[in-house]
Amino acid sequence: MANLVPPSIYGKEHPEYYALVDGRRLLEMHGGGPQLCLTNPEVLEIVIKTTLDAIERNPNAKNFNVAQMDNGNYCTCESCTELDEQEESHAGTMLSFVNAVAERIEKTHPDVFIGTYAYEYTRKPPKTISARDNVLIQLCSIECCTFHAIDDPSCSLNQDFCADMDIWNEKAKNIFIWHYNTNFRAYLLPFPNLRSIGKSVEYFANNNGRGVFMQAAGDGLSTELSDLRNYVMSRCLWKPGRDSWQEAMEFCRLHYAESAQPIIDYLTYYHDLIDKENLHPLLFSTEASLFLNPETVKQIDKYFTNALTLAKSEEIRNRVEKASLCVYRAKLSVSTMEMKYANGFCKPSLNGEDENLLERYAELCTKYEVSRESEYTKNEDYLNNMRKIYSGIKAVSLENKFWRVVLLPESNAKIVEMTYKPTGRNVIKPARALDRFRFEEWVRQGDGPKADGILAFKVMEKSTTQTVVALATKDGARIERTISLTGDAIRFETTLKAGQARPFNFLVHPEYDAGSGSDDPQEVSIYVKDEEWIHVNKGWVNAKPTDGQSTLIKEGLKGGAFAYFNQKEDFGVEQRFDSKDFENINLFWSPERIQINLEMTPTIKKLQAGEKAKYAYEVHYLDKAPIKY
Length: 629
Ligand SMILES: [Zn+2]
Ligand SMILES: [Zn+2]
Description:
Blueprint: H1 7-10, E1 20-21, E2 24-25, H2 41-57, E3 63-65, H3 78-87, H4 91-108, E4 113-118, E5 135-140, H5 156-171, E6 174-180, H6 197-206, E7 209-215, H7 226-238, H8 244-255, H9 260-276, H10 294-310, H11 314-323, H12 325-335, E8 339-342, E9 345-348, H13 357-367, H14 379-390, E10 393-394, E11 396-399, E12 403-408, E13 414-420, E14 425-426, E15 440-443, E16 458-462, E17 466-472, E18 478-486, E19 489-497, E20 502-503, E21 506-509, E22 511-513, E23 524-529, E24 533-535, H15 547-553, H16 556-559, E25 561-566, E26 571-577, E27 582-588, E28 595-602, E29 606-607, E30 612-622
Parallel strand pairs: 3-4, 4-5, 5-6, 6-7
Antiparallel strand pairs: 1-2, 8-9, 9-10, 11-12, 12-13, 13-14, 15-21, 16-17, 17-18, 18-19, 19-30, 20-29, 22-28, 23-24, 23-25, 25-26, 26-30, 27-28
Helix pairs in contact: 2-4, 6-7, 7-8, 8-9, 9-10, 10-11, 10-12, 12-13
The structure holds zinc ion (2 copies).
């Protein structure tokens, strides 16, 4: 959509063409560009014209997209909100807009389809509006669990999707599916979806799905078992109803020949394990949701070692070696799960693993032409980052009677350890990779530290209990962070001084250790403070918050405190802040996650040249829940 109404052409004179988000018309937006204001009649005319132009330029194409951009920032202007509220879904504005485009296109091009997505905020069908016959709805399964088949009654995430698909079926003649088949966070880690592929394709075919786009690691070569996966997916798409597990077994026997059995045993072991642990890995899976830890990875390693020794020819050995990339990659993850601090450096723990693990993996990646580590990271960059981690990252350690805190100044000054000494528990998750699992702060606009833009802070001051780190940005701003231990508190303070006028749009992003993963949201309890503490994840349905409960989390802004407590392991954290300093808090956590992911947005948004701003917060250890369970 942003391409049909380019902000570079219209943005300056007509900001009102673009979505109103938090009271602002934002022209720059991640995910390809801003969403449009879909109830503005001028926007409709422009989209019709640009779509007609596109049809003229591509007379053989029969399917043109009028679809949302890849971000959740839909328009919240009065008229868009009114329509969405009437239709009880943001698909309300979307579908009425797309229908209006399709109606006009049909007059001159009756054989052309106008495609749109039912994706994230538009997945829920509108209450009264139906799609015109020349509209093609592509329903996206992005929230779904990949281990279970889409119609598996034991998987509530997937049952929600099926319920939406049933309603879309009554509202649209042409339904296509966008289905996800890989772990976009780490293309090479073991991924247990081989039992669900066939059943999901069969479900789509039996429920009016006219086509399925199977998105896998399409931009990467030699990803986890990619030969096997390409075979299995193609066979199931060619003839819906085929059993993907049987297809996988067949591929193993044909392709890995005398080495097939241990690989079949590995696949069986790993799928059974995920089943037994009752996990629901999503398409951005972490090692935790894939149950990859030192013990399981050691077990997986045995199967591949065995398979390699059985290979009788160079050809079979190479095939097995290529398949073993996934266990190497898993071993690398495991090695960084625990970063060991010593003498000013943090290093991964190899725990008896081959010292050349990383270089051996790099060699295999070259041999088998691995091109990407993930959707966002080239393999080369991943390897270089891992080399930095393996050679030891400069670290600062602070310590008093209560806490030991370790941070990495050269990696966005992220915190990688917060151990509460009286109990010995580290309450945050370690580094894992330079761009993952972090307790850090990012800028959302302008120069500065970002999740994918790792910058080095300079250590300005360092004592046993306090450090000051600073970063000068290209636009002349200075970001300074002070981290100090005062009694039983860890205090964080960030100051930014602008060189020239710039946005001051920060995100404070702690990731805490939730302890045991559990499907029961009562086991890990989340609290915010209004006047009193409120237990906000009480009664989550299917371990998910209702809209009301999500809103409740924001109440923590008033009382200036957020907390969580693991009832089984008897520990938790309280984070306190001045409620004036923050305008929003969000919780990204569900019970299958081992990390509690809090996002806090500071109030200040813009600074003039020379202007200064700051915010602060404090972390406390909890040995009992703030209120009774
Ligand atoms: Zn609007
Ligand atoms: Zn599931």
